[in-house]
Design a protein that fits this description.
8 strands, TIM Barrel, 8 helices, alpha/beta, eight-stranded parallel sheet
């Protein structure tokens, strides 16, 4: 069987996994044919933890992103404070700090790490009462500009906000990305497929719901571990090894072989994240 990739997990996050658990889960992933893992950043410090974890392991990659929920006035959502307090984000090709750190997102940023594969997870989330719509849109635009300036794809987090998502995304027409953990309608899925080049993230949620399913050529597999554990492991903490279960479910759903699912979804990951 072709190898699999977990394109979206939080294995680096010590709120959910101890170091011992994370190491064990990486080994278990390999045993189950999951050869590569991408750890997703959700705020500045979390992204740096993802970077640290990825640097210590072969075949583990990371993303830099500030989740839309940060648009509630938290200090970390302010670009100027990020650059001032964390000079490693503003070092140029010669590793020299630029200016005084008060730079715009639109200027190129060198993270100095080939394992940085995307900006994410970023986007819009209007699910919870009291969300800051204007703040989220501004932050999303900043993250998209960051992706553009650094020629990186984007891992999108979008929940109950697709009208604004499409409106913002069309202002960044060359953006490449994946709509992580898609949970919306057939109509919205159709619009993604017909008006963008984005992939769609399929995870364990699909195995116990009635979500609309994109075609295989647009699917990227993910766990979102520790969340959304797929059947038949419901009730357990999710982990990258369970990508195999999602792939098996998908092969049955689409009427194709598990090898075909693995081959195509891994090809999609390579095309998007260049790994």
């Amino acid at each position: 069987m072709s190898y699999l990739v977990d394109s979206h997990c939080h294995l680096h996050d010590r709120e959910f996994f101890t170091e011992e658990q994370a190491e064990k889960m990486l080994k278990n992933a390999k045993k189950n044919g999951v050869e590569k893992v991408i750890c997703i950043g959700t705020n500045h410090e979390d992204s740096l933890e993802a970077q640290k974890f990825a640097s210590a392991h072969d075949d583990v990659y990371w993303t830099y992103g500030i989740h839309p929920e940060a648009a509630k006035g938290e200090k970390e959502a302010t670009p100027e404070s990020i650059f001032c307090e964390h000079p490693q984000l503003r070092r140029g090709r010669n590793d020299e700090p630029r200016n005084d750190g008060r730079e715009e997102w639109s200027q190129k940023i060198s993270f100095g790490d080939d394992k940085l594969v995307a900006i994410g997870e970023v986007g819009l989330d209007y699910h919870y009462e009291g969300y800051d719509r204007d703040g989220q849109i501004k932050l999303f635009e900043e993250m998209l500009q960051l992706a553009k300036d650094n020629n990186l794809p984007v891992s999108f987090h979008v929940r109950e906000a697709f009208d604004d998502f499409f409106a913002v995304a069309q202002n960044f027409p060359k953006t490449r990305g994946v709509v992580h953990s898609f949970t919306d309608s057939k109509k919205t899925l159709k619009k993604i497929l017909e008006t963008t080049d984005f992939y769609v993230g399929v995870n364990g949620l699909a195995t116990y719901s009635t979500l609309p399913m994109p075609p295989l050529e647009k699917i990227i597999l993910e766990t979102d571990a520790p969340f959304l554990t797929p059947t038949p492991n419901r009730g357990k903490i999710n982990e990258p090894a369970y990508i195999k279960d999602i792939a098996h479910w998908l092969s049955t759903k689409l009427g194709v072989s598990s090898d075909e699912v693995a081959e195509k979804t891994t090809e999609n990951v390579r095309n998007l994240f260049n790994i």
